[in-house]
Design brief:
Layout (H helix, E strand, L loop, with lengths): L1 H5 L16 H6 L4 H4 L7 H13 L25 H23 L6 H10 L4 H21 L1 H8 L1 H26 L15 H12 L10 H4 L21 H17 L2 H29 L1 H8 L7 H5 L15 H15 L1 H11 L2
Helix pairs in contact: 6-7, 7-9, 7-13, 8-9, 9-17, 10-12, 12-13, 13-14
Subcellular location: Membrane
Organism: Brassica napus (Rape)
Main location: membrane
């Protein structure tokens, strides 16, 4: 299940009314001082969202429920193009085939050589685990930091292919090594026989996947079928925490470390949590650079610590907040999470056969 954290609907329509409003008049009107903070030079997507927010929400600009960013996890079946999903299926098949030949298959790929090279640097599985995470984190976050420059040089789709093509093999190697060596090292505690522990950990792991970052749901952008974008999300899980991926990873790590209870699991959790803490800082920095005042507006009424902004009154949940989760992407996450739990023996068997 770690692969979802390590990497990788139906809703009220946000469509504008037939008569298109004037952006400048809405953004500058004295009746909306909060919106007036955002200049008309803001990115078109943000200005469009601002106008939609003005039309959908209470016109009182001091109302913290006034939307600035995008509605996350929205999925309208009627707007999907069959040809786009056909392309997605073809691209997914090609990527998996190349990944198998170039990296996974021990007779043709470089995956085993990579693991052996890292492992020989230290006889400690804990150190090897940390090194694999460090290499992945450096490459993954490093390329993310270079996104603006990279997209200008080679385009959004080409940079996404480069980003995924480098990150995916490193992520898979790290996951497989963890699965194969999760019971190595020193046993620190043993709670697997304690009544209720398994159930509590299962619930924690299940909940952790609902903290997936909303952009993860945009599969067509992930596969570069649609042009990848850097989104400024605000609804759904973002109301609870501005960095859901980090929170979900921490919950997943703590649950697995509690269950396994050894030094390798603790080492993996230490590395992954450190990476995601850095990712939270780096993500805020990149969004502030891209969106400026619009991001600062969202930052003021969201929090990194779950529920902190809600408790402090900076975030007001709509009465129908549950509708932001009753959407196809979250239903799919539910099915995949339950399926991944029952597929644990298959993942463990496949990892063992690689001898990484």
């Amino acid at each position: 299940m770690a692969v979802y954290h390590l990497l990788l609907s139906t809703s009220p329509s946000l469509a504008l009314p037939p008569r298109r409003p004037n952006f400048n008049s809405i953004l500058r009107t004295p009746a909306h001082p909060r919106l007036a903070k955002f200049p008309t030079s803001s990115p078109p997507a943000i200005r469009k969202t601002l106008v939609r927010s003005t039309l959908r929400e209470d016109p009182d600009a001091d109302n913290p429920s006034l939307l600035i960013g995008e509605d996350s996890a929205a999925f309208e079946l009627g707007k999907q193009k069959l040809v786009s999903w056909v392309y997605f299926g073809v691209i997914l098949g090609v990527v998996l085939y190349i990944l198998n030949v170039v990296w996974i298959d021990n007779s043709t790929g470089f995956g085993k050589s990579y693991i052996d090279a890292v492992s020989t640097l230290s006889g400690s599985p804990e150190v090897a685990m940390l090194m694999l995470i460090l290499i992945f984190a450096t490459v993954h976050s490093g390329l993310a930091s270079l996104r603006d420059v990279g997209e200008k040089l080679i385009g959004e789709r080409a940079f996404r292919v480069l980003f995924a093509g480098v990150s995916l093999p490193l992520a898979m190697s790290t996951i497989v090594f963890f699965i194969n060596h999760r019971y190595d090292g020193s046993q620190l505690w043993q709670l697997q026989g304690v009544p209720g522990v398994h159930e509590a950990i299962w619930v924690a792991n299940f909940v952790s996947f609902f903290f997936l970052y909303p952009s993860t749901f945009n599969l067509l952008e992930v596969a570069a079928v649609d042009k990848p974008k850097m989104h400024l999300w605000e609804t759904g899980i973002m109301r609870i925490t501005r960095h859901p991926q980090m929170v979900g990873q921490i919950v997943w790590c703590l649950a697995h470390t509690l269950w396994i209870g050894n030094s390798v699991a603790a080492s993996a959790s230490l590395g992954l949590i450190a990476h995601h803490l850095f990712g939270a800082w780096n993500g805020d920095r990149r969004l502030a650079k891209r969106y400026g005042d619009a991001f600062e507006g969202i930052k003021k009424r969201t929090s990194i610590v779950p529920f902190a902004a809600i408790i402090e009154g900076r975030q007001v949940l709509p009465e129908d907040y549950y509708k932001e989760f009753v959407r196809l992407p979250y239903l799919a996450i539910t099915a995949l999470t339950v399926g991944a739990y029952f597929a644990h023996p298959l993942m463990q068997g496949a990892s063992f056969r690689l001898h990484w």
